[in-house]
Amino acid sequence: MSFTSKQTDLSKSNFTDLNGMEKERTSSNEQCAKSPNEKAKAKNNFPLADMLKGLSFNDTKRFYFLSLLFLIFLLILLFNKQILSYASSFLGAITLFAVLRSPMRILTIRYKWKKWLASGFLTILAIILFLIPLGGIVFMLIDLLSNSSFDFAEIWEQARKWNGVVFERFNVNLLSIDTVKAMSAIGQKVLTWLFSNLSSLAINSVLMIFLLYYMLYQRDSFERAIRELLPFTQENKGILVKESKKIIVTNAISVPVLALIQGLFAYCGYFFLGVSNPLFFAILTAFSTIIPIVGTMIVYMPIALYFAIEQEWLHALIMFLYGLIIIGGVDNVARFLLQKWIADIHPLITVFGVIFGMAVFGFWGVIFGPLLISLLILFLNMYRHDYVHGSRAVPRVTSPVKESASSEELIEKWQTIKEKRQAKKQ
């Protein structure tokens, strides 16, 4: 009896042990079976992956594309102020690159110059032709001002004399306390602006030279990157690049040429009318050509007014007519001839482009203000040409003019002639 009960208890305990072992084996197998799935779930347990899991390939690609654009614009916004501080150097380098691009191709392809040698040569040429004359003019103005003897007592007496004449004729007191305070405040602001921009001008000039060198050295990569980033068809890309080059080269050449021509005509007029320091006022006239609307009037009108106050009425009349007809007229004639020779741009594009461009980009706005307005008109013409049914718009901004052979055409002609000569020798 006792033996039977012990055997029964032993069998129960063995059965319990076997059940426990089976449960442990089953649970361990379940854990082994679930572990790969759990690892996969843990690996993909991210909100972005869950969100993209249900998207198609095109939707996923579009999402990454928009994310990349967002990051690019975010970085641009973060460096917005720093980029604007050195925007003039970049714009200046692009201007010089557009002018020197063809000579770079000729030197490297036709004459087989090394890229570093051709880039260095053209960069030095740009310094000699553009920066040194500009610096020379600035130092000449400083020298003229430093060597001039100013007798402030005499100037004050002369100013009082002029004020008396104006007050008698027009009942206006130019030397009132409020007027003097306003003029001194304006003078202080101008001097502060000049001194604060001297360091920026020097830094931007040096940076512009470095950018120009590497743009020329890596010309193919630079042009290829621009073409790849443009969101247009191949035809419209070619039109955009061609029109932009025309506008940049036109303004880059016309601005200094027009300034030089008007400065020469102004110097002749100032010299024959007996204006003191005619060279100084001629240089000021040349610089004032970039100012829209008023332009050179801000120089020759005060000179004519000075002659009128001195009661030299004939000199005042001649100065006014000479400035209005000769100095102002030569600008219109020379600009018309230059634009017909390079690219015929509408005058309103130039005027409003210079106004808006100088407010945004400073000096280089003279070139890139008209460029931006021209690009806006070009994009509108492209849209009308491609998407508006029945539109007669042409995707152009500049009027068609007779074009000279480009550097690519000249190189191809030269290579054809060279191959023919080699074939004759053989």
What would you say this structure looks like, in words?
It is a single chain. The chain is mainly α. Among the domains are: 112 residues; 165 residues. 83% of the residues lie in helices and 0% in strands. It is built from 16 helices and no strands. The longest helix is centred in the N-terminal third of the chain and has 42 residues. It is globular and about 85 Å long. It starts with a helix and ends with a helix.
**Which residues sit in consecutive blocks of at least 5 with pLDDT less than 50?**
10-15, 31-36, 39-46, 401-405
Using the CA coordinates, give the radius of gyration: 37 Å
What series of H and E elements makes up the topology? Answer: HHHHHHHHHHHHHHHH
Counted by DSSP, the helix tally is: 16
Biggest sheet statistics: none
Q: Distance N terminus to C terminus?
A: 126 Å
Assign an overall shape: globular
From the helix content, strand content and strand pairing, which structural class follows?
mainly alpha
